[in-house]
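hiii so my PI (J.) wants the whole complex modelled not just the main chain, which honestly fair. so below is everything: two entries, each one labled with what it is. i double checked the lines twice but i was tired so who knows lol
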Amino acid sequence: MYRLLSDIRVVEGASFIAAPYCTLLLSQLGADVIRFDAIGGGPDYRRWPLGPGGDSFYWEGLNKGKKSVALNLAMPEGRELAIAIVTAEGKDGGIFVTNYPETGFLSHDSLCSVRPDLVTARILGHADGASAVDYTVNCAVGIPYMTGPEGDEHVPINHVLPAWDLLAGSTAAVSVLAAIEYRKCTGLGQHIRIPLSDVAAATLGTLGQIAEVAISGADRPKFGNSLYGAFGRDFGCADGKRVMIVALTSKQWKALIAALDLETPIRALEAELGISLESDEGARFLHRERIDAIVEQAVARYTLAALSQRFKSSGVCFGVYRTVQEALTDDPSFVESNPIFANVEHPSGCRYPTPGFPASFSSEARRNPYPAPALGQDTEEVLTTLLRVPSAALASLHDQGVIRLPDRLLSPS
Amino acid sequence: MYRLLSDIRVVEGASFIAAPYCTLLLSQLGADVIRFDAIGGGPDYRRWPLGPGGDSFYWEGLNKGKKSVALNLAMPEGRELAIAIVTAEGKDGGIFVTNYPETGFLSHDSLCSVRPDLVTARILGHADGASAVDYTVNCAVGIPYMTGPEGDEHVPINHVLPAWDLLAGSTAAVSVLAAIEYRKCTGLGQHIRIPLSDVAAATLGTLGQIAEVAISGADRPKFGNSLYGAFGRDFGCADGKRVMIVALTSKQWKALIAALDLETPIRALEAELGISLESDEGARFLHRERIDAIVEQAVARYTLAALSQRFKSSGVCFGVYRTVQEALTDDPSFVESNPIFANVEHPSGCRYPTPGFPASFSSEARRNPYPAPALGQDTEEVLTTLLRVPSAALASLHDQGVIRLPDRLLSPS
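here's the output for the full assembly
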């Protein structure tokens, strides 16, 4: 939690990952984020993983530090309140992040008639408005046919990290900050459309993978756990632990050869093939079977502890394969002593390590991450302070079922 | 390419994905990005995939639209020029994105002694400065042990999308824009440190996966291609094509049941198990074997074309598994008629579909993406216009080997 963007007020009307992740990043940098939901919660309110009491750790993770307003969005009065929150005055307000349908009561055009300088960032599945989620986008850009063991060309393997959601969310955050900057100069609002499928297509293009296929006419096959185009693969240690070893640069390659005492066999291989593995990263990939066999044998001689020591002192680029539980238990730098994490109690009643923003800023002290809000906990505050709804009107909104406040607030005082 | 950030000047001294991706996003939003490299190129200059002439499509993809300056960074004079470019005056300059080592001639502190309000965004492997890349971070946060076929618990499967690099890059872009905003208010510069490993750890926390393991004490196993916690899996059509079908929400679930005429068997299953699959997304996951068998049989009755038609008219959330080549050939909306792509000729001599920024902005017309620069093509321009190096001095820098200019520029005029 940093206070770099403390002037900015963002309203979120959204669910699942991409849009809430966008506003989470802005919130962690200091923006005031108000999320509104239907009374009872949006479609992501019970998304797994769940805690022992059935609360969603996913929802808590994505919404920590935000204000929560719960409205009956099926009633015209509830929709009016949502519109009023989105378009509330203030030069640093008027920023709306959503995945609601493009047409309807939260359309950018209708909101603009209330606040013309509104910046709306809208996450879509496809650019034409067709539905899509991370998993349906991922299969359509070819990733599952490149993932997994070599040879199984027709067996797609899905990713488990919702990378496209997360990238769409961070792209939306970059876009919103750029649009705010632009609005300051020009006074103009903006409807920003961020389709998941275009984030995926653009990313493949940026990594050279569309050029590769368009120019060569051939798809990239599966290469198992091998890194494409240089040296890298998983190897087993003497104690059954596995490591990922990478040598993209000459320096990393030299470090690996030195750490495993492989000068002799590698020099012999280079002489036999008439190549330089140090200067030609592509040769390390083309001849990976030969190299892998040499490295495999060497790695298998060491326990993970012994190997790690050798690798660290030589500067080899490597990582240990482990489960989340192993990472939590074996490596204090992962979470336990990591300054980006703090133990925070959330509305689920569970206290657990909660991350703040992953980057650190030298001119600002890091503050502990906030807990997630209880659903609707800030309804009264937002309505009275932002919309200046009088207390009597609050009670009436509650009685009509437009909002739901804790009973004690409605007792006559 | 949009002109939202056209006042900003960013200098990149970096290689590979994360830092260049950060500045690519800023460049696509209008920032003037100057990348400097060693003469002959940095360690990413030959990164695969390569074009027919050995040029890197990867490098072209990540550096399109940037200015390229090539300097002899092994010489003190070359390093001085790099420092001068990073710290050049101008209120919207002084922004530096790098993955150079934290100590050394490009340390934030030494650069700050020249320009105190400098914003440096530094991508690191680990927070303590230890080396790490996407693949070595991914294995250490448990993803490969959650990926792939159920049962193969001890067979890690690497991802092929460098998601942590991309997320670190976009997190850096968000951070840089926040730091610029903060500098405008306070005059303060900033050293922003973005460790890949912390981006990964924070993301797992944000998705609820650290809470899940910390509270339950158990790791999440592999679930094959099944989506965790709701309904979703890949299914085969009558013609051998595969689709990913997802039902996270009640609406998506109802659409699927309607599209496949599954009311009767699903109602029977619900009655047998005493559950409501429409209202309880978790039940769709817990009983996935039973549901999958019903859906599998239904999907197998249709060709992909027939199924797509049914799914589209019912609003089912689904995607087709395809290779990049199939996506390019079969689906004009992917690239061919997609307004975010344009055919651009790059320094490799190849012309191919090149993506611009994946989001669109209503107040700004989209401009075509630029080609990548030829290495060092902007050295003379940047030195003469930004650093105001006189022409005679340019020639002398060339003769000393500090920079390399095309010969014609050095001939006496």
